[in-house]
Design brief:
The chain is α+β, with helices and mostly antiparallel strands. 49% of the residues lie in helices and 14% in strands. The chain is built from 21 helices and 18 strands. Strand 7 (133-145) and strand 8 form a beta hairpin. The structure holds adenosine-5'-diphosphate and magnesium ion.
Length: 763
Amino acid sequence: MGTRKKVHTFVRVKPTDDFAHEMIKYGDDNKSIDIHLKKDTRRGVVNNQQTDWSFKLDGVLHNASQDLVYETVAKDVVAQALDGYNGTIMCYGQTGAGKTYTMTGTTENYKHRGILPRALQQVFRMIEERPTHAITVRVSYLEIYNESLFDLLSTLPYVGPSVTPMTIVENPQGVFIKGLSVHLTSQEEDAFSLLFEGETNRIIASHTMNKNSSRSHCIFTIYVEAHSRTLSDEKYITSKINLVDLAGSERLGKSGSEGRVLKEATYINKSLSFLEQAIIALGDQKREHIPFRQCKLTHALKDSLGGNCNMVLLTNIYGEAAQLEETRMVKNLEKELALLKQELAIHDSLANRTLVNYDPMDEIQIAEINSQVRRYLEGTLDEIDIINLRQIQEVFNQFRVVLSQQEQEVESALRRKYTLIDKNDFAAISAVQKAGLVDVDGHLVGEPDGQGFGLGVTPFSAKPGKKSKSKKTFKEQLSSSARKEGASSPVSGKELDVSTSKTQLTPSSKEGDVKDMTIRERETSSIEPLPSDSPKEELRPPRPSTPPPKPVAFEDFKNERGSEINRIFKENKSILNERRKRASETTQRINAIKREMDVTKEALNFQKSLREKQGEYENKGLMIIDEEEFLLILKLKDLKKQYRTEYQDLRDLRAEIQYCQHLVDQCRHRLLTEFDIWYNESFFIPEDLQVALKPGGSIRPGMVPVSRIMSLGEDAQDKFSQLQQVLLPEGPDSVAFYNAKVKTEQKHNYLKTMMGLQQAHRK
Ligand code: ADP
Ligand code: MG
């Protein structure tokens, strides 16, 4: 395999005010890092816990700017790509440690842009500097989630959704992904557009497809193809640069997680350890076989990891003690240990039989256990201490006692209010049906579907006492509102929860009617959140019968829900304007220098012609010029230098302006989309449909193309587009850009919205 390039490794420490000096130490040359964890004495005397680690690296990036990170980590890799070397830069680390910040950077601030946009800039700079070569640049953006491949640029209008799933294919030229869209970009700006498109898709996908973006690997690839314009026989140079934002490396505990999370954890843990295996194998010069094909990640990167490739692994770590210790895991272990100790104590006592108490428990002891069980069920006691086996058995006994008592209480409470009929007593049921009190399915007449009072209540197995984490059930809302309003209903929510489904309820004829009316009223009104139970609700004035004109509403929106995005939008715009101003000043300076250069050139020419007329002096082949001409030459040289510097500045400024322009466009798009949503929510969507949009509803606020829920009339749509152009004129280009983006987003959200509506409907 020839000589392999070394894998370069760096650590970037996330800045913190609370840096763990006593735990993290860097070597003097900044090329090693030592991590020291304090020995946890609470874990007992016999303690094999490892407390010290030492890593050799190519560099530690502490409080490093994005600029410095790029210089250190990426610049050479990108530079060598134009000479034909494939390169891969990967960010590895726990979620939140700064991988995406390092790779993509923040989109709010040009200065904080990450490796991706900088790499694109460098590639296009280098192309400008090599006019003798014809160089083409293509990009693609791949996401790997649960071993499935997703094209983050498939949303572009000319790509279209792929029919067959993507596959990784190997041919003599290398590895490529069949079905992944690859985009030719002739200038920096196009490349930025693609990057933004992909980033937006990453965010949208996490909402519409319920993917957690930190649980997937994202690979942005820049493909470079170059050949000499002058030498016809020179071969083509092809190379690619993979910029990889890996999934969060935290080990998700398998015991606690289930379903989706467990699946994600399994795939991430597997793919990261396969990556590790591949990298270790690459580092071993004697190894012939490198296991690339074990997972999609290493397979897709196969031709960019090994051999003659530049490879950089940047590990993002937190600088805080709390994060280093993985506190959660330690706590779990501690708890487990405590339980084990208790178990051992029981064994011990069984063995020497000194503590074992075989006497039956007396009444006081039993009453105490009964009280413990009740407090445990209420949630006021966290744990019941285990003392011995007999006590454990008594705890179980008392559980049974308390439970059957509660059952009886509930039943009698219900009987006081309702007539109970056995579900299998068809004669009785049909009599009640005839009287019109229940419908055929046994629901109370006039109730919304499936909310039959007393039917379909929380099953017996539901853990009583402890409040479930999910949002309040309808029954809980009902009972808590009843309690708050001081209603005298003897049926508390808790009691309802434990009612069995053996019986079904109809209102008793005596007092039921009045109360049931109020309950039914509440039930219908409970579709809207109960005032005291919905702290998150925005305080919105009642709806006007006719919606306000959009320009007026837009001003309100900017002060309300849109204030934050409007602030960012304004900030970006002012940065953009400031850069534009500087660019125009620089241009003026360049023009002035150019004029002066022209004047100087003319003067020089004049001097030269004068010299020629007077006859040239020559001394041993050296031309002799007078001082005036000499000074002019010096001046021209100096001007040229100034010109070049200013020109370089202007080029940088222009790139920055382009970037800022994209940010401004993106913000404007967000602002208008959110306004669209807000306006429709506030004035058009029927309030019952908004349930799905509420916090905890099936659709996340801010991600819904409300125009899809209640599509406005064509006229209104047209007027709105016009309004957008009038309100925020930034040139026709940005409007086209904005329109394209809105369409993309609407397409993404359409499916999600329909699903949400179906769910709301089913409820
Ligand atoms: P990851 O992608 O590893 O989950 P992020 O890159 O999203 O983590 O970082 C989490 C948060 O910390 C973000 O808000 C990000 O802006 C911030 N952050 C990360 N690294 C830095 C840094 N070096 N300087 C400033 N902010 C940072
Ligand atoms: Mg991330």
